[in-house]
Amino acid sequence: MIEAVNINKSFDGKVVLKDINAVFRAGSTNLIIGQSGSGKTVLLKSLVGLHKPDTGSVYYNKRNFTAMSDKERGDLRKEIGMLFQGSALFDSMTVEENVRFPLDMFTEMSLEERRERANFCLNRVNLINVNHLYPSEISGGMQKRVAIARAIALNPRYLFCDEPNSGLDPRTAIVIDELIHEITKEYNITTIINTHDMNSVLGIGENIIFIYNGEKYWEGSKEEILHSENKELNDFIFASKFFKTIRDRL
Ligand SMILES: Nc1ncnc2c1ncn2[C@@H]1O[C@H](COP(=O)(O)OP(=O)(O)OP(=O)(O)O)[C@@H](O)[C@H]1O
Fold first, then answer.
1. Is the distance from CB of 151 to CB of 101 less than 8 angstroms?
2. pLDDT value at position 237?
3. Cα of 69 to ligand 1 centre, how many Å?
4. Residue 39 DSSP one-character state
5. Which amino acid residue places its CA nearest to atom 24 of ligand 1?
6. Mean pLDDT of the 138-165 span
7. Terminus-to-terminus CA distance in the chain, angstroms?
8. Is the predicted pLDDT of residue 55 greater than 80, yes or no?
9. DSSP state letter for 125
10. Does the Cβ of 86 fall within 6 Å of ligand 1?
11. In this structure, what are the phi and psi dihedrals at residue 163, rounded to the nearest 5 degrees?
12. In this structure, which residue's CA is closest to atom 26 in ligand 1?
């Protein structure tokens, strides 16, 4: 579980996050949604320690991350997997080397053990016989799977995903969402996902937080979101004609 308590963040006097309180549960896909510029990325970066909140604290399973020394924070980061926008694979490394990378960096495992673990993770995301290929030789959906395999290589307790299905066709996007959801359940990971994608919201939104102008305006599940009375949330989700039609039929 990750808790954000009274998080405030400004840049050059411009308030970007206002008193955010949120609980992100283990074994759940927790989604942060909101329009462009609402503060989702700044919140995600504040949770993971890439931004220091001006005030407020972040707790990882009751451990106060904000108050930790650099060394303690560094140790805790080994429990965190990250899935960046655009996969962020290393172009000059093969698929297997990409997945092995965190194991090479942060473990004392032998080469054989690291290769075994990389293969286990690649199998888990249904990638077989592509170990020797380079990222440019595989599809965008496969690149995302490699990035997921790399993110779970160290057995993370926490997984952060920034727009995990950006750039993918709708069908592949659903496959990637479902994979993240399955892995979250299987390993009881606290997963936090930044997204604009309403398909993700309705597919895997177990706990959804809606940010509007840096404030948390709404919180609920995918079952609740289509029935919300919150005007700003409705303006956001029903900006799409498709979802408006769905609501009108409910
Ligand atoms: N390092 C920074 N310095 C100054 N301002 C910043 C910085 N990072 C973000 N901001 C500002 O904070 C606001 C929120 O940005 P943020 O990237 O969190 O939005 P977002 O909701 O993630 O948008 P998007 O969906 O487009 O990625 C924006 O006005 C942005 O310009």
1. no
2. 85
3. 26
4. S
5. 36
6. 93
7. 34
8. yes
9. T
10. no
11. 45, 60
12. 36
Question: How would you class 235 by CB atoms within 10 Å of its CB: exposed for 0-12, middle for 13-18, buried for 19 or more?
Answer: exposed
pLDDT band at 179 (very low <50, low <70, confident <90, very high): very high
CA 85 to ligand 1 center in whole angstroms = 15
Bridge partners (DSSP) of residue 29 are 191
Separation CA 168–CA 190 (nearest Å): 24
pTM of the predicted structure, to 2 decimals = 0.93
Whether ipTM > 0.90 holds is yes
Spatial separation of the C-alpha atoms in residues 89 and 165, rounded to whole Å: 15
Q: In the chain, which ranges are continuous DSSP H helix?
A: 40-48, 70-77, 95-106, 111-124, 140-152, 170-186, 198-204, 222-225, 231-237, 241-249
CA torsion 242-247-249-250 (nearest 10°) is 150
| Amino acid residing at 46 | S
**CB of 208 closer than 8 Å to CB of 197:** no
Lookup: tokens for 209: 């937080």
- Ligand 1 atom 25: the closest Cα is on which residue? 36
DSSP 45-88: HHHHTSS--SEEEEEETTEESTTS-HHHHHHHHTTEEEE-TT--
Q: How far is CA 239 from CA 46, 165, 170, 234, in A?
A: 28, 20, 18, 8
